[in-house]
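S., here's the first fold you wanted:
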Amino acid sequence: MKTKMKNSSNAGFTLIELVVVIGILAVLFAIVLIAINPGKQFKAANDTKRRSDVNAILNAVYSYAADKQGALPSGIGTSDTPIADVTGGAGVSFCTDLAPVFIANLPYDPKNTDIGCSATYNTGYTIMQGTSGRITVKAPNAESGTPISVTR
């Protein structure tokens, strides 16, 4: 009995096999991309930063009040007031009243491009004192559609 030997020069994948494998990989990649949804993840990360910043601002305001025998930083009104550098307009001067003594870093909204103390600095957050004396800090630009707000 004679057996034929295959020619080793014909070893490899055919074009059809390569196209099928590439197609399967593309479908798997699309499924993973849809499952991960990077846009949604970035929005959630930005809102998490906003929540953290709102709490940090509120903690800094209460640290200031504790250090100043209950006095709050100037400019906190009974309606939403921007937390900004007051040299650039009305608002609570985060730069001069709170940073760097009561908070190390200046918080800012993730979508805000103007950061650092300057005449135009605006955190993108607001602050107000309610009639009960409680302080509310808000992040009105939350990407979830609902403003992030903390009251203490």
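And the second, which I think is the more interesting of the pair:
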Amino acid sequence: MLVFWWLTYKLPVEREVDDAALGETANAVRWEAPNIAEIWDTFSVH
């Protein structure tokens, strides 16, 4: 849930969710970037 919260509320609206944004999210929530990329691939529609 923290990953989706970060992507929804902390990432600027005009910015696309790309590898750099996922990397910043990984640093912010202290997760490994490949884990977040896997979650994003699974739930990218949401």
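Why I say that: The CA atoms of residues 4 and 43 lie 10 Å apart. The chain has one domain: 2-43.

Talk tomorrow,
H.
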